[in-house]
Amino acid sequence: MDGIRSWEAARNRIGRRGFLGGLTVLSATVLAACSGGTASSSNASAATAVSNVNTALNSEAKAAQSIGNSATVKMTDANVYDPATITIAKGGTVTWQNASQTVHSATFDPSKAAKAGDCSLPQGVQPFDSGLLQPGQTFSHTFDTAGTYKYFCVPHETLGMLGTVIVQ
Ligand SMILES: [Cu+2]
Questions:
Q1: How far is the CA of 104 from the centre of ligand 1 (A)?
Q2: 35 and 26 in contact (C-beta within 8 Å)?
Q3: Span from the CA of 119 to the centroid of ligand 1 (angstroms)
Q4: How many Å lie between the centroid of ligand 1 and the Cα of residue 118?
Q5: Which residues of 8-42 are buried (b: 16+ CB within 10 A; e: fewer)?
Q6: pTM for this one?
Q7: DSSP one-letter code for 17
Q8: Tens of pLDDT along 114-165?
Q9: Which domains are present in the chain?
Q10: How far does residue 142's CA lie from ligand 1's centre (Å)?
């Protein structure tokens, strides 16, 4: 049955998480088809199932496309990075904007962290640091190496001003 072959292909393309969502839809549809009893309703249901899987595939594709080449993170008066975690494409640039009334930093240097777990870089990446940004100032950095970067604010690390950049 073409529907099943398409479904197998879809499973391979969307991976485990997306597949499970698609499987739930497909199972419900196949159950409905079995109780219906006729070959034509079975085919129609299989087509519906494939259509549902395709919808899931399209939403996965949109999610992948939404990873931008640039992002802005605000440093706030609440002593947080907003958003605290961002995901950008490899080669993308992140700009930190001090939108508060006090100084902040975006520090990607484990040697400056009070607590080891607050800062980490992908293997081979050299440390970097915005230095102290005055209110209204910005700092930009381009991320050429994929991986997870954990960074912190020097004045507010112990208050929990921590951020993560995921580069894909
Ligand atoms: Cu800060």
A1: 4
A2: no
A3: 14
A4: 14
A5: eebbeebeeebbeebbebbeebbeebeeeeeeeeb
A6: 0.63
A7: H
A8: 999 999 999 999 999 999 999 999 999 999 999 999 999 999 999 999 999 9
A9: 2-65 (no CATH), 68-167 (2.60.40.420)
A10: 21
